[in-house]
Amino acid sequence: MNQESERHDKHSGNTPKYERAFYIGRFQPYHLGHHKVIGMLIDEVEELIIGVGSAQKSHTTIDPFTAGERVMMISKAVSEFDVPFYVIPIEDVEYNSVWVSHVKAMVPPFSVVFSNNPLVERLFYEAGMPVRNLPLFHRGKYSGTEIRRRMIEGEEWESLVPKCVADIIHEVNGVERIRKLAQTDYGGR
Question: What is the pTM of this model?
Answer without folding.
Answer: 0.87
